[in-house]
Amino acid sequence: MKKKASTDLINKNTVSEEFLEFKRKKKWGDKLTGYKCFMLYPRSLYITWGNREYWTWDCFEETGDENIEVAKLSHVCWLDVRGKLTMSDLSPEIEYEIVYVVKLTKGASGWELPIRLKLSLPDGRVQERQVCLLEKPRKQWMELDVGNFQSKDGESGEVCFDLFEHGGHWKTGLIIKGAILRPKQS
């Protein structure tokens, strides 16, 4: 099933896009600054219960007629999506932000409890926040802000970012396009 995905979130200020790891990631340079940006698509994320019984995997047309796979939640009671990127892949001494790009279907349900977004840095610092999806608009891409951090020159380790809700009730209708790491927008 081929659908057209919104590319406004990524492509309005980009130059030199490059797909990595068999289209599981995309890397580009910000047009104004040249700083490195990344999009991690769902196949490069760890999705608990990510098999076809609980999630469906559909192709969306991305820029340049590239087909990108997205994950659509059929039903789970334990939502857990995790991503990570090596700090040395990022531009040094830049304040980055991380967002998950998601959409709720018209029939999405089970979002009465807020989801949690968590950012973990190599030095042990953790940021965590909650977002209620119940009142969010349906059928349009939205960004869920995970958090911000400063990259450091020569820093090793990984930045980790999680989206989860372990409330034990069934949830449906969430589509995950991926996670974006980019210089913080002012």
TrEMBL record:
Domain of life: Eukaryota
GO molecular function: carbohydrate binding
Database matches in Pfam families: PP2
Record-given protein name: Protein PHLOEM PROTEIN 2-LIKE A1-like
